[in-house]
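A reminder before we start the practical. When you read a complex entry, don't treat the lines as separate problems. The point of joint prediction is that each chain is placed relative to the others, so the output describes one connected object in space. Small molecules and nucleic acid strands, if listed, are placed in the same frame. In the example below there are two entries. Take a minute to note the order of the lines before looking further.
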Amino acid sequence: MSRYDLALIGFGGVNRALAELVFQRGDSLAEELGFALRVVAITDLRAGSLVDTDGIDLAPLLAAEPGELDFAGLPGGSTDPRNEWVIRHVPSDVVVEATFTNPADGEPALSHVRWALESGKHVCTTNKGPVALAGQALKALAAEHGVSFEFEGSVLSGTPVLRTAQSLFGGLEITGVEGIMNGTSNYVLGRIEEGVDLPAAIAEAQELGYAEADPTADIEGHDVQLKVMILANEVLGADLRREDIFCEGISTITPDEVRDAASKGLRWKLVGSATRNEDGSVDARVAPLALPSHHPLAGISGPVNAVSFHTDLLGTVTVSGPGAGRIETAYALLSDIIAIHQRHTSATRRVLQETHLV
Amino acid sequence: MSRYDLALIGFGGVNRALAELVFQRGDSLAEELGFALRVVAITDLRAGSLVDTDGIDLAPLLAAEPGELDFAGLPGGSTDPRNEWVIRHVPSDVVVEATFTNPADGEPALSHVRWALESGKHVCTTNKGPVALAGQALKALAAEHGVSFEFEGSVLSGTPVLRTAQSLFGGLEITGVEGIMNGTSNYVLGRIEEGVDLPAAIAEAQELGYAEADPTADIEGHDVQLKVMILANEVLGADLRREDIFCEGISTITPDEVRDAASKGLRWKLVGSATRNEDGSVDARVAPLALPSHHPLAGISGPVNAVSFHTDLLGTVTVSGPGAGRIETAYALLSDIIAIHQRHTSATRRVLQETHLV
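Here is the predicted structure of the whole assembly.
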């Protein structure tokens, strides 16, 4: 049976949830999927780095409170995250990047991904920064080194949005995408419909764990802007930069506007969209829209997210599901590893075909 | 480049739309997908049969009005559909079954599928009958003969419902499915909400082409019952018969009930569902339900259909899209052929691995 050795870069909620999956379900996953998973390195800004090329014992790490982890006292541990050294030099098959998203230049995640691909290691990530800002360059770098770069979790956590477009729409032309891709703003709009004002609705979203301490990126649309960029570039083959994407959030919508629309059967939603024009160019934008009730995104409520694909032969197909959550996002990483496994074994076959062995 | 020779069984709307795709887009599909398609045989209850092992010239067939087709006067043509002979003895790679659905015993489609699989030919079908009544047996027969049996179009036309569960949910446990799987009844319920009575709403659905001349199977839930059977057996690994699935349609719901619910924010929907119990058994049913507005199926309106998957790691993921339509259903067949191509080439690889050539 194949086995993939993982290097986890960042040990916050998502990679910790992935480690839990490996620890709790590794055997049953191996039986189902045909490959085993082992964690050989972990780095974290606060906890330091931990390396064991025979496989890290995850039990004590998962038993500790997240804030209390300190790798320095453990065999193979260090207070220094040593990211570049771990990524480049510790033998691993897949580097799993789950540090924080930096929308300005994607760093340090962008460097983490580059180092891994240059070292001939597959990468999977949930980090929007490197994918949105350098997705095409990183895919080219991966191809050059014969490895995969996977990022299902960068849009709608583990809900299979990118992979639906990549693997289930063969023979279709996708002419546009639009989605509700931020749970906080969607929850807030729903609560405003119900009579709560904006600051109170944001406070509720924070209490429920949907919104960050600083909800600006959620409320002003910047989080959705990165996801639209990823969809436009990945699904429509565009090459957009952030400044190409008009972005308006929900802070300027008044409660009166929301409730007035609701009384007419319209629902305000923060919609990110990208459309291919006749000349092949792609326009993308983020803006609040008052959607009629029959619109496929009108019924997407609360923290649920959704992406609609507009296609030539099938019309509109919509995938909805969780947009966030640590387990849900960790599942995205697992689905990436499954895709790497499938592509890697297919590649072996293609080489054989090209060398006339089959 | 690979090429697949197709035998089309039934030449109604769906297989005719598939022939149009092959005729109009064959070259661009081949470039994208890496395989060519050729139609070598067509059979039809009214038009007879037509065989040309060098590839049938589709242009004159597609130029004729559907009702006027008569294969008897053409070279290789006959007034007799000769289904068994064509399926068993005309050399083809894929038999595409798209005759009418018979919910009682699945015939004659069930025999068509059996003959093809026994002859070592792949089968794809949009026909609910054989899949619902004998899906597991036919899959076993296909495996025995080293071929594939694909049926994405038996549920929600080309909307990738079965294939999402089969290929994008690796590592997940699916605990239940529920869906709106009949466009006619969903359209009718929506119109009743808007004040139209049941007979008038059915007449409208017929005019719009959603409902059959005899709308009983749509309105009484029998169509959904077959689809629930397919989902329960295929996605949850059940082995249910039709009589195991409670079935209530929408004819007993009164307009007052629908509008009263709507005034409270509830929407009546005809829901088909299947749930895995603690002991591994599966319960399935079809019944109208008044759904709260935050339910993932509440916003599915008009002829749009949807299926929600309840999972352990991802919570609920919903796929919505067209539930019918000739092009949309023909696309399901194309997606089946793509899956056959991918599986067939993967199988070649596995054989090589097992014989230690890789």
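Discuss with your neighbour: The domain at 2-157+326-354 of chain A is CATH 3.40.50.720 (Rossmann fold). What might explain this?
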